[in-house]
Amino acid sequence: MQLCECCKKNPFKYKCPRCAFKSCSLDCSKTHKIKTGCSGERSKTHYVPLKQYSYNDMMSDYGYLEDMSRQADTLSRLNMKNDPKKAVSKNAMWKQKGLVNQAERAGIRLSLLPAGMKRRKINNTNYNPKQRLLFWTVEFIFPACEDKKVLLHRIPASKPMRELLDDILTTDTPHASDALTRFQLQKYIDSGTDSFVVGLKKDFVPADQQNTFIDMTPMMDAPLADILKGESLCEFPIFNVWIDTAAPAVTLEEKSEIPSFRGLHTLVEQTKKPVESPAEPMEEVVDASTESSSEEVSSESEAEKSDDDVSPVEMGESSQTVEASDVDEKSPPADEPIATSSSM
């Protein structure tokens, strides 16, 4: 049996969670911590080989991640409390909800990331209530030129995609940065927009479908609103542009004519349409009313007939009973004497 590593006399009973030091008593454990400076707390970030990885190690990692998430949330709350400018205002929250609702009305399922994420910071998509139009942030990726990325802001939903590509590649602009971008995209400028293959990157897909895109080449002359209708987006759309001569090593799916979900705009349009009642139901209502009135008249006539059909015998009996009741009411009480002719 192994002995205590501190006193070397008694067999060990305890093992340090951090360094696996073997001790026999509390005194030996405290002596070990004083001499070595060990904290005695189990290390949550030490390396464990895959062959030795057990259920306890997994639960330890899970608890560590939960602890880190809780500490990060606490620090963020304290940071917002000390600096109110960093907190998301209610007005900004209402704007985000309004943006999601307007996108849903346009047939687009838009998801926004939490504040602080990179895509959330660079996204300037907004809704203009005066023009009743969405203005998008759009990103283009050009794989033939070392995955050059071009980010455009405030793009109206009514603008066609071909015009967006022309603005990037050919249209004269006063910005010096555009000259550098066009120099890097010289292959695309020489090929022309007619030879482009455009694909919309699909968001919210499994890991094995990351290279799946929706083919938007037939809709290059369509407005951005029609292109994005029926799609699910994370913050803003991302388009990959390839040259037709270089076949892309990706999967291109055809855009479905039927949206993946029903937008609220269809319900709004239905509520705005005037309700025209057909002729047949109205006639049925009139007939029902006339039938009800006729039934009331017939019931009244039947009641009158029933009164007229009473036999004279019954009438006599009823009259006798009425007279008898009248006599009873007029008769004097039993205490008072009744005057007779003899007494008079």
From TrEMBL:
Q: Which GO terms describe its cellular component?
A: nucleus; pre-snoRNP complex
The alphabetical list of record keywords is:
Metal-binding, Phosphoprotein, Zinc, Zinc-finger
Its GO biological process terms? box C/D snoRNP assembly; maturation of LSU-rRNA from tricistronic rRNA transcript (SSU-rRNA, 5.8S rRNA, LSU-rRNA); snoRNA localization
Which residue ranges does the record annotate as region Disordered?
Answer: 271-344
Coiled-coil regions listed in the entry: none
In the record, the note on similarity to other proteins reads: Belongs to the BCD1 family.
Which PANTHER family does the UniProt entry name for this protein? BOX C_D SNORNA PROTEIN 1, BOX C_D SNORNA PROTEIN 1-RELATED
The protein depicted here goes by the name HIT-type domain-containing protein
Q: Which species is the source of this protein?
A: Umbelopsis vinacea
